[in-house]
Amino acid sequence: MLVRDHLPVLHPAAEVAEPELVRVQREVPEEAILRMQRDVADEDVRTVKDIPALAEAYDGINIKIMKAGGLQEALRMIHVARAHGLKIMLGCMVESSLGITAAAHLSPLVDWADLDGHLLIKNDPYRGVRVEQGRLILPEAPGLGVVANH
Fold first, then answer.
1. Long-range contacts of residues 138-141, Cβ cutoff 8 Å, at least 24 apart
2. Looking at the predicted structure, is the pLDDT value of residue 139 above 50?
3. Is residue 103 a contact partner of residue 82, using CB atoms and an 8 Å limit?
4. CB proximity list for 80: less than 8 A, separation 6 or greater
């Protein structure tokens, strides 16, 4: 319920209506903006060895399977990042559905998944993970679930 006493000056139309939400634009101090930002190490992190040194400087890391060297290293990175209290983004480069689907299998272990690199390939040689309404849908075929496009 809207409590008018706690709102700034309302638009005249709000006096007659019962608004559920009123957008108030106001200046936010720079210090508050800095506290809201989440700094995620991207190019600075490639392997598990990089994480301890970055833990003090960042709120999280971005793991790219291809840059990490594979799924095993990425999984180690997830565990070490969690031990250091870091948030984790699983990212990618422009790569086929084979790589994206492999990465997507780790997505339940991370905070954010940005795995859309396969959507930029017109002639992707594989079919795997799908994106439906912003969600990754893993294939149900055996193994990674990836099949070759014919």
1. 138/101, 138/104, 138/105, 139/101
2. yes
3. no
4. 48, 51, 52
Cα-Cα-Cα-Cα torsion 97, 102, 107, 110, nearest 10 degrees, comes to -120
Helix (H, G, I), strand (E, B) or coil at 114: coil
Which domains occur in the chain, in start order? 40-148 (3.20.20.120)
Q: How does pLDDT run across 62-90, given as a tens digit for each residue?
A: 999 999 999 999 999 999 999 999 999 99
Q: Which of these ranges, 14-23, 24-33, 60-69, 83-92, has the smallest mean pLDDT? A: 14-23
State the alpha helices, DSSP H only, in 38-129. Answer: 51-54, 65-68, 71-83, 97-104
Element containing residue 40 per DSSP (H, E): strand 40-41
- Mapped onto helix, strand or coil, the DSSP state of residue 91 is strand
In angstroms, the CA 13 to CA 62 distance is: 46
pLDDT over threshold 60, residue 16: no
Compute the mean pLDDT over every residue in the chain, rounded to the nearest whole number: 82
Rounded to 5°, angle at Cα 88 from 82 and 93: 140
Residues 68 and 138: their CA atoms lie apart, in Å, by 22
Matching residue, tokens 């002639």: 123
